[in-house]
Amino acid sequence: MRGRSLPGDAAADFSKAIAALREVRLRPEVRLTEVPAPQRIAPYAVALSAEVVGIGGADELSSGRFILLHDPSCPEPWEGAWRAVTFARAELEPEMASDPSLGEVGWAWLMEALDARTLHYAAEAGTVTRVVSERFGGLADHQATVEMEVRASWTPLDDDLGGHLLAWSDLLSTIAGLPPLPEGIVALPGARR
Length: 193
Prior knowledge:
Blueprint: E1 2-3, H1 8-23, E2 30-35, E3 44-53, E4 60-70, E5 82-92, H2 102-116, E6 121-133, E7 145-156, H3 161-175
Antiparallel strand pairs: 1-3, 2-3, 3-4, 4-5, 5-7, 6-7
Helix pairs in contact: 1-3, 2-3
């Protein structure tokens, strides 16, 4: 957690947001770690890195980063004082490489995650990228791989900043191929996808 000197209310608001993020209970497959935050984008920032792991914790199914920015001056493009800046990536099945709707589906997963948590947000923007890696020469016997990357940002308009972290973790779980879990339910071990 990093912050420049701001008026007391801004510092208190940011401390309250950090406490809300720390109280969030993610599904057991999601491992969250605080990492260094960007230094010059906003007066206050916190960055979290996550990976979704499979059974036994050995296989990484997806990974990403959630950054929460706070600028009480409400930068015009943000349309508010808070900004969530996120990244999520996962390896997909090779046949997904040619699916023309992959980008739309990835973006829809994010919007559905935010809406399922009944969050209020504005100024959402982002990209969905597919990365196809083909191997040649000494690596030619390896199958091509396909990765999806969702880079997105939005402005939380409600006080439920922990809910925005939960929605992002829902996206990470979705692109990892994990089924959605109702509140209070624990996933049983099973095969991926």
